[in-house]
Amino acid sequence: MNYDVLIIGAGPGGIFSAYELTKLNPNLKVAVFDAGHPLHKRHCPIDGDKIKSCIGCNICSIMNGFGGAGAFSDGKYNITNDFGGTLYEYIGKKQALDLMHYVDEINLRYGGEGTKLYSTAGSKFKKLCLQNGLHLLDASVRHLGTDINYVVLENLYEHLKERVEFFFETPVESIRVVDGGYEITCAKGTFTCEKCIVSVGRSGSKWMETVCRDLKIQTKSNRVDIGVRVELPAEVFSHLTDELYESKILYRTQKYGDLVRTFCMNPRGAVVNENTNGIVTVNGHSYEDPAKQTENTNFALLVAKHFSEPFKDSNGYGESIARLSNMLGGGVMVQRFGDLIRGRRSTEHRMSDSFLTPTLNATAGDLSLVLPKRLLDGIIEMIYALDKIAPGTANDDTLLYGVEVKFYNMEVEVSDKLESRHKGLYIIGDGSGITHSLSHASASGVHVARDIAEKIAT
Ligand SMILES: Cc1cc2nc3c(=O)[nH]c(=O)nc-3n(C[C@H](O)[C@H](O)[C@H](O)COP(=O)(O)OP(=O)(O)OC[C@H]3O[C@@H](n4cnc5c(N)ncnc54)[C@H](O)[C@@H]3O)c2cc1C
User: Fold this and answer.
1) Measured between alpha carbons, how far is 450 from 22 in angstroms, rounded to an integer?
2) DSSP track, 345-378
3) Distance from residue 353's CA to the centre of ligand 1 (Å)
4) Contact, 360 vs 319, CB < 8 A?
5) Which atom number of ligand 1 is nearest to the Cα of residue 430?
6) Is the distance from the beta carbon of residue 35 to the nearest atom of ligand 1 less than 6 Å?
7) What is the pLDDT of residues 443-452, one digit of tens each?
8) Nearest residue (CA) to ligand 1, atom 35
9) Is there a contact between 439 and 244 (Cβ–Cβ < 8 Å)?
10) Could you give the CA distance from residue 264 to residue 247 in angstroms, rounded to a whole number?
11) What is the enclosing helix (H) or strand (E) of 104?
């Protein structure tokens, strides 16, 4: 075998697998392959000036490369079993939380020291939410911020590059079961290993499907979350964001009984484009450094859509809706809440009359031509519900960017060790469909590294 362990994907899952493996057994020969660039070479060409929207680079620097999809994220590590994935269903609630705390300690040691840990414990907002038909989920949130998150990644890379071999700009094409392990093929040749960790995230979801098909690994997929990103003056939510930073709030709509939730809240942040498999959707981030902060807060409002038999392509459904907005808006579309309610499109003129300055240059349009009525009704209902705990949410000038889609990778069949039916082949992070967040993906990496280190030692 060329290597003891090969890791595919250098996102949080892959990074924390490599970290823990080399810590537990420094003699292991480990290599990490990633389709994207090393951290210092990751640059999205959108500069808001010459290049205003996604030009579909061969390798997307936002989603791929050292640090994975989270590299330029807000660096919010949510320490909770209430959202961010279902890792606890495989490894138990206590173990999942312990691993997330362990990851947090490492992040602090590698540059995150001094960053804030927010908590919902004992918050007065729980009661306020309940009184208005809203439910605040429990969590502790470490907010690294985009800038400190980058520093932590730089430091982790400096530490790891002495201990493991990195192959960047090297997408793995296939995995084959061979005698005593696995053989992976890529443009740089074939490599063999005893154990293989696959951590390819959301951007590797299509490839993951082919791997599962080829290796006959069972999968299931039936959920997609669709909605908009809301942007409003930071003051409207400041009482919540100052105390909790991120509040995950759930609402059940009166009309259809659908679940709508807030997701990825970015106080004083910016709305950004996201490119998933060529489709431009919207996301958001914010900086810890006050000099880089904006006057707006943004968060997503997502409606969970679960499909029943015979329909199986939930992600395809989400993609079609995102494509519609791309078709009408040439990318992401933006609409004032007041225009949406009055049944008219937003125009450049109406946008320029607004009191709110958008942080993303998007095409003014009409989201009711893009989002199905049921989803749009749910979003509007929740905006009015949030207006009761944060008056001003339903103001005419509140901006809605569409569409935001939260694709769920198909869930892959793995054991409590996150090992597939093939012994020594582990599938972790967002690519496994089990995690959907930085903290859960990182924790899954530590979990498999410990199992491998123990097995190789015995
Ligand atoms: C803009 C943005 C903001 C976000 N903000 C937050 C946040 O604040 N908090 C939070 O908890 N989560 C956030 N997320 C989600 C979070 O980034 C992911 O949950 C997390 O990165 C998943 O980690 P992962 O290691 O499983 O996968 P990823 O981070 O997606 O990493 C997978 C890696 O695998 C590589 N890869 C894919 N296919 C192949 C292949 N065939 N061969 C080789 N390499 C391959 C990719 O290049 C990528 O680098 C955000 C995501 C985005 C896009």
Assistant:
1) 10
2) ---HHHHHHSSS--SS--EE--GGGTS-HHHHHH
3) 38
4) no
5) 26
6) yes
7) 999 999 999 9
8) 9
9) no
10) 9
11) helix 93-107
Q: Identify any residues that bridge with 338 across adjacent strands, giving them in sequence order.
A: none
Distance CA 448, CA 445 (A): 6
Give the span between the Cα atoms of 97 and 53, in whole angstroms.
Answer: 39
Q: Report whether residue 201 contacts ligand 1, using a CB cutoff of 6 Å.
A: yes
Q: Above 70 in pLDDT, residue 458?
A: no
Q: Summarize pLDDT for 75-124 with one digit per residue, the tens.
A: 999 999 999 999 999 999 999 999 999 999 999 999 999 999 999 988 99
User: What CA–CA distance (Å, rounded) separates 233 from 231?
Assistant: 7
∠ CA(170), CA(107), CA(119), 5° rounding?
125
Beta strands, E only, 34-75: none
CA distance linking residue 14 with residue 449, whole number of Å: 10
Distance (angstroms) between ligand 1 centre and the Cα of 124 equals: 34
Residues 6+ apart with CB under 8 A from 105: none
Query: Mean pLDDT in the chain?
Result: 94
- The CA-based angle 366-326-306, given to 5 degrees, is 85
Question: Is 8:199 a contact under the CB 8 Å cutoff?
Answer: yes
- Is residue 69 within 6 Å of ligand 1 at its C-beta? yes
- Give the phi and the psi of residue 213 in degrees, each rounded to 5: -65, -45
- Tens of pLDDT, residues 172-216: 999 999 999 999 999 999 999 999 999 999 899 889 999 999 999
